[in-house]
Every structure is written in structure tokens, then in C-alpha cells.
Amino acid sequence: MLITNIKGLVGVHSKETLSLRGSELNQLPILENAWLLIEDGLIKDFGLMSNLNTQYANLNTINAEGRFVFPSWCDSHTHLIFAAPREEEFALKIAGKTYEEIAAAGGGILNSASKLLQASEDELFESASIRLSDMIKQGTGAVEIKSGYGLTVESELKMLRIIQRLKAAFPIPIKATLLAAHAYPTEYKNNHQAYIDLIINALLPKVAAESLADYIDVFCEKGFFSNKETAQILEAGAKYGLKPKIHANQLSSTGAVQIGLAHQAVSVDHLEETDTDVLQALGQSPTIATLLPSCSFYINIPFANAKGLLSHNAIVALASDYNPGSAPSGNMNFVVSLACIKLKMTPEQAVNAATLNGSAAMQLSNEVGSIAIGKKANLFITRPMTSLAYLPYSFGQSQVETVILNGEIYHGPI
Ligand SMILES: N=CN[C@@H](CCC(=O)O)C(=O)O
Ligand SMILES: [Zn+2]
């Protein structure tokens, strides 16, 4: 397949560039008036229209005149498997209840867990497939999915097996994360260690035996998992080769980031509450700072200090956090808009954070996340756009016109 007359071929980073930190995010290389050649599902070559090789004339060609071609969004933080939405909490939030108050009253994660317990694997697979297909049509071409609404051995395994089914059914890279430490089930409210023991002794060996997860995650937060409890779980996960990606500093700043860094987390995610120590530590670390502005927007908590992180030289990624409680949207176009509007990232920084750095947060940046020869041809063609900035500017709307995955036009839903 050949794509010609591309107004802007976005994200033509060198193949060796696997992530961007600090001021490196300012540069989003764009080739103007370009062509792109795809072969065997991979990016084979690209260049300027003035240098288009005539031997490509007979190829299946898409004329992208006036349009931009982007590498697909790489969404490195989602909870897209859930049994039911939580609109009842939406009403409570409008009436003034906070996320913590709703959770403490038995809403929140525990509410989702009790619903998921009742749902069959097939039902969950079907509803997750619809969500994932919607995300793909909005430009997402690689995704991480967490468990965490199971909270029993069987229910967590059920979630992870659904992720394996999604992997087999969808033409995009999918990473799986074990998030059994998302909340304490009610019966363990006064015996935290017993739940941790269950994770470590009963769940982890099964997850490892079936190779069901790539990462281990903990919601390290006041009222959820303490720093000490988090460390214990991450250390147990490491014994099975699971690297950490943790929920840190969402509602308070209590040292979660430092726990993540001490355990060589691939990423620490959320970071709505950060102080200078955290910015400095992340600026000197290979751990990626993954920001989730849709969550801040939806539950009315502070937006992360993206500018502070960038000025301290951190690797900043953007993800959707798609989940029924704090971010019921998997739309990465909106995430990129929010990053510009609320985090004051430039369109170039935001696109880099949602593509290459998102892929790095899933350890997939040698496969996806930029336009480089040999990478997967996972990309999208926009509608005609006046400039790059038009995409985040036109917030709440999708400029994605054609999705190409592994070199083929995606028509979905599956
Ligand atoms: N904070 C923890 N987990 C999710 C929310 C989960 C829920 O409310 O169901 C998050 O990333 O925001
Ligand atoms: Zn999350």
C-alpha cells in the first residue's frame, strides 16, 4: 500500500529514538508533502513527493491530499474491562460527593468488582470488545489493559484471560497488567495482610504459570494500599518477572512515586499531586511519568504538573485511564486536547507523549509509536486539516478518517 500527497507525515523520529524526555518532546518531526510505503504490515519507506519512485505507480494507493498521517495513539493505561457503567456515581458527583467519599460508601472499585463477579467471561469480552473497537476507530493502535475489578483469585484470572482473548481477536499490540491490589475487598478491610498473602501465594503463581500478565500494578494511596504494602506486592511480582506500573500520587502525595522508582517501575501513573522532590526524582529516572488528564477532568481533581515534569527533564506520556469510575472515555484525541488546554502542553509535546512515549510506557517503542522504517504500519489518516494544532484544537471531535493497522484499513467492529 502506498499513501501519497500527505500534507504532514507526523512523528518521523529516527528508529533509534525510543522515548523522549524534557525538551526533546518539543520536537515533533513532520515531513510535509510526503508519501509512505507499507509492505507486509510494516512501514517500508517514506519520503517527499518530489522524490516518489515511479516503480510504485501500480500499488494500491490512498491519496491523502490535505490530510495528516499520524502514528496510532499508544494508550498505556486503561481499565477497559468492566461489567457495568457507574452513572449512579455521576449523579452523586454532580451533587458534590468526592471520589473518596463515593468509594468509602461502597461505590467505586468495590461496586465494579461485585458487578464483575456476576458477569460471564463472554459478556465481559463482548462489552470490552465494543469499547476497544471504538478506541481503535478513534486512532488508538496499541493499548495496555489492567485487571483490578476482580479482587478474588478467580475473578482476577477471569479478567486477565479476557485480555488474552482480546489480544487474539484484535490486530493491535495489547499489554496486560495485574492490578489485584486495586482496593481491599470488604472481607479483608481489617486484615490487609491476608489479602496481600492471597495475591502473593494464590494468585501470582497462577498468573505466572499461564503467562497472563506483563506488569504488576498497585493503587498506592491513602485508604487503599500503603507504601509498605505496595513494596511487598511489587517485590513478589518481581520474583515472577512482572515489572511495576503503579497508580501514584493521584489523590495525595505520600511517597508512592518513590516506591515506584525504588522498584524500577516502567511507569508511575496519575501524578495529580506532586511536589518538587517528585519532579526532580522523575527528571533523573528512566521511569516514565504517565499523565491521565481525562481523570482530572472527570472527577474534578488537580491536573498534573506536566510543565514542571518537562522542565525537570522527565519522560512524560499521556494515556486515557479508561474506566467506569474516574474516566469513562477511551478517546485519546480528547486526552491530547486536554493535555494542551489544561496541562499547557504544546500540540507537539502532547502528540509525542501520546504516541512514542506511550509506546515506551508499554515497552513497545521498537514496534509502534512513530513513523520509522521497520515499525508496524499502525497509523491513522486525518480528515483534511489546516495544521497539526487543528487536531487538539477541535476538542471532543475526532479528526480520524481512516485507521490502518498492520498495513490494512480497519473497518471494525470485530
Ligand atoms: N485510581 C484507581 N483506579 C482508577 C479508578 C478506578 C475506579 O474508580 O473504578 C483510576 O486510575 O483512576
Ligand atoms: Zn487507572
Distance between the termini: 22 Å
Which structural class matches the secondary elements? alpha/beta
Largest sheet: 8 strands, mixed
- Share in helix: 25-40%
Q: What percent strand?
A: 15-25%
Describe this structure in words.
This protein is an alpha/beta fold. It folds into 2 domains: 114 residues, Roll (Urease, subunit C, domain 1), CATH 2.30.40; 287 residues, Metal-dependent hydrolases (TIM Barrel, Alpha-Beta Barrel), CATH 3.20.20. 35% of the residues lie in helices and 21% in strands. The chain contains 15 helices and 16 strands. Strands 1, 2, 3, 4, 5, 14, 15 and 16 form an 8-stranded mixed sheet that branches. 54% of the residues are buried. It is an enzyme of class 3 (hydrolase).
Question: Which secondary structure elements does this structure contain, and how are they paired or packed?
Answer:
Elements: E1 2-10, E2 30-39, E3 42-48, E4 61-63, E5 67-71, E6 73-75, H1 87-94, H2 99-104, H3 108-118, H4 121-137, E7 140-146, H5 153-169, E8 174-181, H6 192-209, E9 215-220, H7 227-239, E10 243-248, H8 256-262, E11 267-270, H9 276-283, E12 288-291, H10 293-299, H11 306-311, E13 316-318, H12 332-341, H13 347-354, H14 356-360, E14 379-384, H15 390-393, E15 400-405, E16 408-409
Parallel strand pairs: 1-4, 1-5, 6-7, 7-8, 8-9, 9-10, 10-11, 11-12, 12-13
Antiparallel strand pairs: 1-2, 2-3, 5-14, 14-15, 15-16
Helix pairs in contact: 4-5, 5-6, 6-7, 12-13
The protein binds N-(iminomethyl)-L-glutamic acid (NIG) and zinc ion (ZN).
N-(iminomethyl)-L-glutamic acid binds next to helix 3.
